[in-house]
Amino acid sequence: MNTNPDIFYITTPIYYVNAKPHLGHAYTTVVADVCHRFHKMNHKTTFFLTGTDEHGDKVVQAAQNENMTTKEYVDYISGLFRNLWPDLSVEFSQFIRTTDPNHIETVRLILQKIYDSGDIYFSEYEGLYCFGCERFYTEKELENGLCPDHGTAPEKIKESNYFFKMSKYQDWLIDHIKTNPTFIRPERYRNEVLSFLKEPLEDLCISRPKTRLTWGITLPFDDNYVTYVWFDALINYISALGYPNDKRFSTFWPAVQHIVAKDILKPHGIYWPIMLKAADIPVYQHLNVHGYWNIDNSKMSKSIGNVVDPLKLKDIYGIEAFRYFLMREMSFGLDADFNDKALIQRINSDLANDLGNLVSRTLTMAHKYFKGLIPNISTLNNTDDTIKNAADVAVQSYREQMNNFAFNKALAAIWELISHMNRYIDSSAPWELAKKEESHNELSVVIYNLLEGLRIVAGLIYPVMPETSQKMLSLLKQEMLDSNMFTWGQLPHGILLEKSITLFPRIGTKSKKDNKKTQKSEKKLTNLKPEIDFETFQKIDLRVGTVLTAETVPDSKKLLKLQVDIGEKRTIVAGISKHYKPDEIIGKQVIVAANLKPATLMGITSEGMVLAAVKKKKCSVLIPEQPVPMGTPVQ
Ligand code: MSP
Q1: Using a 6 Å cutoff on CB, does residue 292 contact ligand 1?
Q2: Three-state SS sequence of 146-179
Q3: Does the annotation mark 581 as catalytic?
Q4: Quick check: helix, strand or coil at residue 413?
Q5: Rounded-to-integer distance, Cα 591 and Cα 527, Å
Q6: If you measure from the C-alpha of residue 27 to the centroid of ligand 1, how many angstroms do you get, rounded to a whole number?
Q7: Per-residue model confidence as pLDDT tens digits over 401-459
């Protein structure tokens, strides 16, 4: 397939909103972010799409369980996903929701197109339906007569429905996969799809009668039916680009890299290419399929109670270490195991020991022997190519592995270089060279090589650890990622380097700082306001609300203008703009003081106040731990 090599479009699955985000969602989305940053760094024109899949029975049930309307519920959970990504340093280009009007319109357009071309027909069907999976199963797919995912017996249902003629395209798909060997990768998943296609493909039931389900997109050719979730969800990849007429569509499609886990291989490897073919749209370029994260060697599941919250990990270990661990520990395509011990081991050994020590040793020596100035080696006859050669090898292997989605190997290539540099320090022993006047030139070369190697390492780690990369470059007083990033010999001499810092503290022993913190919290609370009685406290009417919109207030450094739904819409002006970008607060549930006398700030009437924990320069908005209906009183 001929696609423009300068164009790069990457997608994650759009996540169901029937549960909160967990480690699995975080992994796929961080992978997409890493790829996106890598290609952006290589000056490609890029687009990165993620979002939420919001229709279907499961969502309606989940909302009922939480005592919320379906709309309230989807807004809330979708907001959790949207707001999580910036916290994990994920920078997407667009966040799509299947409830977006533009998406709905596109789904209807494509359904009509396929219906008009005769590939959708109406028929009666009797089958075994799993309500948990929202799909029919064939006898063969069941395990001992039970749904393989839920372990429950499916129900026999008879229904008239619309069907999509997938069978018509079976031979075409087999041929397409065979002639495009990397269409589905890694190979094990390509083989899985091909082996599935050895059996005759059944036509796909693509509708649900509204008597059974209303929370979905109405079929354009029959008002009594809504679309089956997969037909709706898969189209997000092109509706987000403004199919059919928007320039983004002609720019980025079909140069797409889809990323999914093995659970949704079949819809992506079979339904989606056939849907595209039937709608006369070029098929996607690559489907990249990864394995599953298990937790302490068992499946992550709500019922076992071992679901890992990525935000907690970020808070404990820091986002850079968390991202590094995800990319280093999983071999893309295979399952991996998550446990805190392995993560701590990686932090202490790879990050604190190998990388952290290399940075601090190099900078400390540069300060000790050259007063912190980058040594001038331009007039020396430098024949010591050890680090240059090691860096060239690392850059080449890294590029190859990144392009092949082998992130663990790409990182291994960087760490190969880091180890090489650490060994180089030991073997060249700068402390010995510093003792003799005649080895001063040699010392200059060694330190220059190390600093230059660090600059290249900083560039290589950027997609996975953008903050650390930036920190390292600013220690070297270098600009972020210029186009010569990986060309040897860019550091100009005479520049004053920053003093060394600890990039990654070791984890394990309780630090003095921690002890100090505990001592502090044992102190008595000061500045306590005068006591009030319970009746006075009861007079404050606190309510839960969802932030619908947020915008900065012109000419104000502190204020955000929010529209908050607390059962009725309120305009609230909040002094949080130094701490929250508008995008970060939209969709969040907040606590509002609802009976506060309105006040005018910068000409805007504020009808309430959003509660936040504030100390010195820190400000954190209070958020209910569970989703609750808008207007719920807070006691
Ligand atoms: N809504 C569909 C996808 C529609 S895409 C057009 C869906 N949503 S989901 O919320 O169930 O997300 C599934 C995806 O979440 C997986 O494909 C994978 O990307 C991620 N993961 C969920 N659990 C995971 C693990 N335990 N390990 C790794 N990734 C996992 O399916």
Answers
A1: yes
A2: ECCCCCCCCEEEEEEEEEECCHHHHHHHHHHHHH
A3: no
A4: helix
A5: 24
A6: 10
A7: 999 999 999 999 999 999 999 999 999 999 999 999 999 999 999 999 999 999 999 99
